[in-house]
Amino acid sequence: MDWLSRLFEMMPVRGRLDLRCSYGAPWRIDQGPGGANEIPYHAVLAGSATLDDPAGGRPLRLKAGDILLLPGNPRHVMHDGSGTAPLPARNRAALNFTISENPGSDERLDLLCGHFAIAPPHDRLLRSYLPARLVVNVGVHAGQNEAGGQLAGLVSLMRGESAGDLLGGRAMLNALSTAMFALVLRLASEMDEAPQGFLALAAQPRLAPAVVALFNEPARAWSLPELARLCNMSRATLARQFQEKLGRSASDLLTDIRMTLAANELKRSSLSTGGVAEAVGYQSEAAFQRAFKSHMGVTPAQWRKTQRREVLVSPAVRVGAKPGKKS
């Protein structure tokens, strides 16, 4: 299994389409932050948009074909760029999503808005390895590489599914949103200037043997010389490459992988804490306890108790919940 597939297996991502916006100028969207475990996305089908920089930097102009991910999950403002007070928008509920529109008559913005949900604590880990803002354009890359063509086809399917209320439409749109996440990362990793983190790491085929080894055998006591030999490079070069591309050391990545696997194991299995420690590569239960608390902020026992309580409470909440009113 390639390491990116292994990553998604460890920390499943679920996509959801929330809105399809159809606006004529002047318009404004003010969103976020979303849920603590969410990464918002926007796909521009037609028209253009300006994204304000929350830090006060230069605004980002988005055009048709752009897909924007905001792993930092900030409050964000998008608008037509005119500086004019926006026309009032009206939301109407379709069967499978919500349509937001205004009466503007100029060039219209056609925008898909949704989010990706990553189960805690994996959302924090994934967010720390991705840039705060990521943009790819399916039009530019559709004819240049396979990932671009695949993503263009996927967005076309989403456009069709969100054009009408079709049977199974919600399931289709959410499945396509989920696939979009992996394809955006794949395409971004193939860009000339892939941002530091997982994307820059994926763009370095020479490092792939070491990365695959860490993901596929995380319980092994990997040393830097061993990993360097797998990549046919010196220890110093490997260490420098990891720091430059990933922003962290190979040892840091290994610890993150182990803690992710441990969190999953504590949640779903009956293995003792010592058994989980051994399964993820710790010979000492005390060392595992210290590493887990440092990484997660709670002990393994506290994490397991919290996760099992949530599993027990959730069904009762769903059974007792009252159906919401239709708008």
Content-based structural category:
alpha+beta
Query: What is the H/E string?
Result: HEEEEEEEEEEHEHHHHHHHHHHH
Q: Mean pLDDT across all residues, rounded? A: 88
Roughly what percent helix? 40-55%
Discrete helix count: 13
Q: Approximately what portion of the residues adopt beta-strand conformation? A: 15-25%
CATH class category of the largest domain: Mainly Beta
The biggest sheet, with number of strands, parallel, antiparallel or mixed sense and barrel status, is: 7 strands, mixed
CATH superfamily of the largest domain: Jelly Rolls
Number of spatially distinct domains: 2
Rg, Å, rounded: 22 Å
Which fold name fills CATH's third level, the topology of the largest domain?
Answer: Jelly Rolls
CATH architecture of the largest domain: Sandwich
